[in-house]
Amino acid sequence: MERFFKRKSSSGSGSSNNVDSSNTVGSSRTPSSRQSQSDGVLGNLQADPGLRTRMIDYDANMRDEVRRSYLQKGPCQPRGHNFPITNMSGINRRFIPQWFDEFDWLEYSISKDAAFCLYCYLFKTNFEQVGSEAFTGDGFKNWKKGRERFKMHVGPVGSVHNKAREAATNLMNQATHIETAVSKHSDQARKAYRTCLIASIKCTKFLLRQGLTFRGHDESVTSSNRGNYLELLQFLADNDDKVKEVVMENAPGNLKLLAPCIQKEIVNSCALETLDAIMDGLKDRFFSILVDEARDVSVKEQMAMVLRYVDDSGHVIERFVGIQHVTDTTSSSLKDAIDTFFSHNGLSISKLRGQGYDGASNMRGELNGLKTKILREQPCAYYVHCFAHQLQLALVAVAKKNIDIASFFATANSVVNHVGASCKRRDLLRGQLQEELVIAFENDCLITGRGLNQETSLKRAGDTRWNSHYGTLISIISMFSSVVHVLQMVIDDNPNESAGEANKLMREIRSFEFVFHLFLMKVILGLTNDLSQALQRKDQEIVNAMALVKSCKEKLHWMRNNGFDALVDEVSSFCEKHHIYVPNMEDAFILPGRSRRNAPIKTNRHHYRVELFIYVIDEQITELEDRFNEVNTELLICLACLSPKDSFVAFDKSKLLRLAQFYPQDFSDEDRLALEDQLEIYIHYVRSMGDFSQLQGIGDLAKKMVETRMHQEQNGRSMVE
């Protein structure tokens, strides 16, 4: 808040006109020469208003001195002068000296025989850059309408003349001068303002943490209708005599810091101070960035950024550093936004050692993705992303790339939405399921036990909800007959648009193709479900995670080569149970809606095995290979060798030396040779010390090394970088 307080304390200071001082009277290069020239200018001020230098031609730093000097001398009023007579329209007229008594601002130029205004000459340029020069430049000479024009010149309140007169009064009254007003901000006033500001910040923090409005009325906070913010101020005053005296009793009525612009300014000042504190903590350390983009409620693209680094104590620190609006979410726009942030906060891309995004194409693209653009500038900024998130994106990508699978998921979602569209349909689904359970129990076909056969419903799938697709498919299979029964009841009871949609869904789900897609995706998602669950565990070891990924790939390869016939048998059995037509796999496949004459000749086996089964599995394997690539996998496996778990059982010197090769900017050839010997000393030391025996992760190891000072350099290099 120091920035906000200083800015507020210095607000109201005047600003000078933007004038080139090299072409103005009294300009100077040094303070001493400026003072001497200032004395010379003030000593030779022209008294005659018709011969004076224009005020704008004086140096901006000495205009107030010139004005004050003229005001001290007063207007030029040569009362004893023999005013010349001028013939105007056949009548002799001249300046009347009694006008000096009526208009104290009036001046007369002997050289031009014209009247001028002292105040407008001194201050008119502050309020009006263009306009009549009758009383400032050329002078007024129409003596016939003298008094009338003088009154018109003065004008109403707020006229240029009256503003200039007020400026002259303020200049001569030093007690109200802006510099004097600023200097009168005593320490006591500053402390009082700081107290108000701190009280306001406390209220703001409380309301933000509780998710309450500033001006709204919430019964959990307020006991009156004054609003949450003012009620909290009153609460602070009741518990702090200093706040009560400064904020509630002696503060001006408009110093409640309640205006939206003031509160936004406080928040922005807090954000800047927080960002400065984060940058001070980061210092010159290596760091990585986490970036994600999304739309806010106003449909504006926003980029959020997080910095990740290790502090002096060995703790892994993650700091959210802000949200920035971007015109679009292309890789170029995001890269420009990151470069701008680095530039404004003094960060160097040479210190960047990692990057993480959501895995979208604009982020991870091999040719023009954000990852690639950063790697071109900093090859050591390796891209590693959340394993569980990558797996989920891989599964969703299959649905997006294959039109048949995409259509299948669209139908499945429509079934879930249609059956669960109303409470009545949900009740029908539950009732039908209970009837089927009773029948199965009576026929001794139901397995009973604790926790089995619980009331359930169709699960809704969502791309952002991990494993939700798998749960949806399982619920559709287990409740298939109940779903069909509910759809049939909708068709029979409601001959309208809803019935038409139900009839369409009925035809689609009671087809061999839908059931084949249903069981195919159930098997694939089932193979990866355990992996997805394991990758979401916080305590998951990197080596185990990589082993699970490898196992998942092997299972998919085995299924591709050996699992088709077993899948067809399972699908056929399900179709026979629910009276769904099962085509002969050796018959010719005819795509619905296509002419048999123009259709390519292929069997049902070829379509379901090659075009669906193998294609979908190959796409899944490709996605897994792409997202868990060899470089990232090797990097993480090498890093996992530092794990202190089970007395450093994962330690592997060759892999740690390989890890050093990933960072040629930090480890030279000589460093890697020395590191080989240092690692031998390191592993012997940590295994022999009891302090390292109970550590569970690399983060714990980093903190323990700082505590034991092993992170400090020895012989020019640290024991372990």
Automatic annotation (TrEMBL):
One Pfam match: DUF4371
Ranges for region Disordered: 1-47
Compositional bias segments (type: Low complexity): 10-38
TTF-type domain boundaries: 91-184
Leader peptide range in chain numbering: none
Transmembrane segments: none
InterPro entries named among the record's database cross-references: AtLOH3-like, DUF4371, RNaseH-like_sf, Znf_TTF
PANTHER family given in the database record: GENERAL TRANSCRIPTION FACTOR 2-RELATED ZINC FINGER PROTEIN, ZINC FINGER, MYM DOMAIN CONTAINING 1
Protein name: Zinc finger MYM-type protein 1-like
Annotated organism of origin: Prunus mume
